[in-house]
Amino acid sequence: xxxxxxQTLLNNELAEVDAFIDLLEREQTALIQNTLSELxxxxxxxxxxxxxxxxxxxxxxxxxxxxxxxxxxHAPYEIIRxxxxxxxxxxxxxxGWHKLLQSARKASALNQTNGQLxxxxxxxxxxxxxxxxxxxxxxTVMSYDAYGHPKLSRRGGLRGTA
Length: 162
Fold this sequence. Notes:
Blueprint: H1 5-33, H2 39-66, E1 69-71, E2 79-82, H3 90-134, E3 140-144, E4 150-154
Antiparallel strand pairs: 1-2, 3-4
Helix pairs in contact: 1-2, 1-3
């Protein structure tokens, strides 16, 4: 049996989601190990991968429509019918779709966890700066800007937003 364009697309999309998961896992390791210098590169790579995944999703939607693939209207969005494909293509299509959904859920959970780690780190840094400012003469603390240049921070100079 020859692989259909839809099956090929699902395989490619799954490979891209799995690469995204690998990237998210490396990002999480950097966050936990406090190797923050890597995060800028991870953010760039995530943007590129997210764009690619968006293209795959659009193509998949188009091929689902062209092949008469019908999904259940509610999560987990099972394939309920395929009208325009040979019967022997149904099982591999369903298996590929299930793998894709599982990987997408894992990627979503990892991304959410990483966002929480970043938010926690941000809150800890703010609390540390407030503590340092409160316990320093004149309320000033030597710190660094986003480019690594030293700067003086004064009490009240920090805001609760990122």
